[in-house]
Write a structure and sequence with these properties.
Length: about 750
């Protein structure tokens, strides 16, 4: 009987934890591709006062499996010292026996799979088979695993078990005087105590030698230093009780993990530990000065005796009042703040600390706190300091530096590695890098023709000197500005190159746009012998994506742009002031985007039969005391364009106005104007606001489909009833700046880089 019970227990042990304790999981068909075993006619739940039923379950005809179910009760777990086996015993529940309160029952189901069962196609040799078990028409969906996986035998079995507990639940277990492994002492469990009248008992407790085996008990043997041991304790409930699924186990007040999910069996999971020689005295020595405000945390060397079986290290901590703990993230010490200087002492393997360990630091006994956690034994010693004010030091401030004797890069020669600093109190260090097609790289060898070189000069102030915040640097008579860090260092960056400069670019193209014709961009060229090359494409303009490459047929009521890209040849670069012609005509700055290494030109814009709007008229009517939302901003009734959006800006704050206009103040008006079908807004269109034509549209490629303008208008008095006057040009400049920020999402998408790479 015992052998049968042991097999049943081991089978139950292989089940997924989610199967136990009456847990029911439902998984949709979309989430699973696995066999479904349908079973009906099963008494699937124990109900107090009802009679137990067992027998054969009903399965679909030709299903390829059969099922039998039965009930068991009076589970008992105990340890057989003779056989060194932990048993769980059961009693079968006879048909007709009434389910009683105070007892625990377990439903067992055995499913025999025939060799011809269709679900075998999901089976992978050597692995468990996961199946769905639908009981009584899908009221529950359970999961199980294949216990016997030898298909060639002609059949295999799946077992399922579920527990119904009607006994009293135990939610916590307490153990006291749990021993530890101490070298030279006997491995004993006799000290373990339970609370008086506890509804549970210890079935067995054993020490195991992890380094040799975890099967054999070493109770009664002597612990050896440095060997890993583990304490196994098995706890069973008293009659009429069961353990909760989340039962917590405490050992001497500390929570330990319960490794068993079964209601009739609990096992605290004690961490493996070394047999330890317990240290009762620790000696350390160190020198630590109170921290000084403005300084960073510093390391302190903690020394121990040569033959010590422990080592020590230290850290600085500051109390985080918001979070309520001491943290080690400290940039610099702050004057008047309290800091903890913490010394941590760890034993070498096989050693631990006694609870009353004595710590002798620099010949003086200090209070130490010894404890044991997941990292093992640890001893901490703390000292507290208040950061002192730094002694005031006066330094000579350097507000300008003179540097001479720098040799600019010359092709074929080595780069200069030093300069002469004529200003007292600082030194200079040079660092060169070279820019080429692969990016910025360190310099190796001699200077090459056609490359750009970057020089970083780092100036470091000598002791007793510091740099002014705004320091001026004169490099061989040329004035430069440096970047300063904290007054001790200054960085000066200079660019040099051996590239030849391209002053002008000539582009010709035979590519033209015509309604109904296919777009072609193969006709862009440069003069023979030019030291740059070009490529071109047609783009179609839209507000969301900017210029999108276009290779179709030109259609009406659409804006197209012909874009030419140019790159300098190796060893050349574009000038900072570059002249560009397209088909013999100078290119406007509005169609020109470049830096020293790239050039983008809009050669022409094609709009088909669309008419250009060369004048935009806007009328704004508002007065003091009126809400901004009530102001009237409109265009002439027959205008071939319309205002799609506008808003007012308070010129004093730069914020959008949501309240009322105030007399005597100036307000900015920002408008967005869209042309009607068949029209485009000319790039050079004049804007007339309240009869004044001193304004122009904000220039951008989007002006063809979306014009923008901004003006400043005065709110003179409460009686202003129309035609308010415009402000002066200085105020307009402020609004232009605001408008540029507001419109960045519209105008930055199309083309990015403009003049001025360096």
């Amino acid at each position: 009987m015992k052998a049968k019970r042991l097999i049943s227990f081991l089978l139950a042990l292989t089940m997924a934890v989610s199967l136990l304790g009456g847990i029911c999981l439902t998984v949709s068909a979309d989430e699973q591709e696995m066999p479904v075993i349908e079973i009906s006619g099963v008494q699937a739940e124990a109900v107090i006062g009802e009679a137990a039923v067992s027998g054969d379950a009903i399965v679909p005809e030709g299903a390829g499996y059969t099922a039998h179910y039965w009930w068991e009760t009076d589970q008992r777990s105990y340890y057989d010292a003779e056989e060194d086996v932990f048993y769980t015993d059961y009693r079968y529940v006879s048909d007709g026996e009434i389910f009683e309160n105070g007892k625990d029952y377990e439903l067992w189901m055995g499913i025999e799979l025939d060799a011809g069962w269709e679900g075998w196609e999901y089976y992978v040799a050597g692995e468990d088979l996961e199946v769905q078990i639908s009981v009584n028409g899908g009221e529950r969906v359970w999961y199980s695993t294949l216990i016997s996986s030898n298909v060639e035998n002609g059949s295999s079995f799946i077992y399922y078990t579920e527990t119904f507990c009607f006994s009293q639940e135990i939610t916590a277990v307490e153990l006291f005087d749990v021993p530890i492994a101490v070298p030279g002492e006997v491995a004993s469990v006799d000290s373990i105590r339970l609370p008086e009248n506890a509804p549970y008992s210890i079935a067995c407790a054993q020490w195991k030698n992890v380094d040799v085996s975890v099967e054999d008990s070493i109770n009664g043997q002597i612990f050896e230093i440095g060997i890993s041991y583990r304490l196994d304790v098995e706890i069973v409930p008293a009659e009429g009780y069961h353990f909760a699924e989340d039962c917590v186990i405490y050992a001497d007040g500390e929570e330990v993990h319960n490794s068993s999910p079964f209601p009739w069996y609990a096992s605290p999971n004690f961490d493996t530990e070394y047999a330890r020689a317990m240290i009762d005295t620790v000696e350390i020595s160190y020198t630590v000065e109170p921290p000084v405000a403005g300084e960073a945390p510093f390391d302190v060397n903690i020394t121990t005796p040569e033959d010590a079986n422990y080592y020590a290290w230290s850290s600085w901590y500051k109390f985080n009042s918001e979070e309520g703990y001491w943290e080690s993230r400290i940039d610099v010490f702050e004057e008047g703040e309290e800091y903890l200087f913490g010394i941590t002492i760890d034993p070498y393997g096989g050693y631990g600390f006694t609870e009353d360990v004595v710590v002798i630091a620099n010949g003086t006994v200090l209070d130490g706190d010894a404890y044991y956690n997941e990292d093992g034994w640890r001893l901490s010693v703390d000292e507290f300091f208040v950061a002192e004010a730094a002694e005031p030091t006066e330094s000579i401030v350097i507000d300008s530096v003179l540097i001479s004797d720098l040799q600019a890069p010359v092709a074929g020669e080595m780069l200069d590695d030093s300069v002469t600093v004529l200003t007292e109190g600082c030194t200079a260090e040079l660092n060169w890098s070279v820019y080429d097609s692969e990016g910025v790289l360190p310099v190796t060898g001699t200077v090459e023709k056609g490359k750009e070189y970057c020089l970083d000069i780092t100036l470091t102030a000598d002791e007793g000197y510091s740099f002014a915040e705004e320091i001026q640097i004169w490099l061989d008579g040329e004035h430069s500005w440096g970047y300063s860090w904290g007054g001790n260092e200054v960085l000066l960056t200079k660019w040099y190159d051996t590239c030849e400069v391209i002053e002008s670019v000539e582009i010709t193209s035979t590519d033209k746009a015509e309604l109904g014709a296919a777009a072609s961009a193969d006709g862009a060229s440069v003069p023979e012998g030019a030291n740059y090359s070009v490529s071109a494409y047609w783009g179609v303009l839209n507000m969301d994506e900017g210029l999108v490459p276009f290779e179709g047929v030109f259609a009406d009521n659409t804006v197209y742009a012909y874009v030419v890209n140019a790159e300098p040849a190796e060893g050349y670069k574009f000038a900072e002031e570059l002249t560009v012609t397209y088909n013999g005509e100078p290119v406007s700055e509005d169609f020109l985007f470049y830096d020293s290494r790239s050039l983008e030109v809009i050669g022409e814009v094609f709009t088909g039969t669309m008419q250009k709007v060369r004048k935009v008229e806007i009328n704004a009517r508002f007065k003091a005391g009126m809400k901004a939302s009530d102001a009237v901003v409109e265009v002439p009734e027959d205008a071939p364009y319309e205002i799609t959006e506008y808003y007012w800006v308070d010129m004093e704050t730069g914020d959008e106005l949501t309240g009322k206009f105030v007399a005597g103040k100036q307000y900015g008006l920002m408008t967005y104007v869209a042309p009607k079908e068949g029209y485009v807004i000319d790039m050079a269109a004049q804007t007339v606001v309240n009869g004044t034509d001193d304004y122009e549209l904000m220039q951008s490629q989007y002006a063809y489909i979306y014009g923008q303008t901004a003006v400043v208008l005065d709110c003179e008095s409460e009686d202003t009833n129309g035609n308010p006057s415009t402000g002066d040009d200085s105020e307009i400049v402020l609004l232009w700046a605001f408008m540029l920020l507001s419109a960045i999402g519209l105008v930055s998408v199309l083309l990015t880089k403009k003049r001025g790479y360096k």
